[in-house]
Amino acid sequence: MFETSAMKELHRIQEEIYEETKDMTPEELIRYFEETAKKVERELEELKKKKKKEIIQ
To answer: How far is CA 54 from the centre of its chain?
Structure first.
């Protein structure tokens, strides 16, 4: 099967997450994903602010 670079990147990320979380308890796993989601949310907000500044200028 042909694997695009995007698919390779996705598989790499999945492996990375697995390695980080494989020994976690269910509670730790929930906390991990909650913290990761909050981090992504903050990063998206920063990108929105940056984009607005670029549009205004």
So the answer is: 24
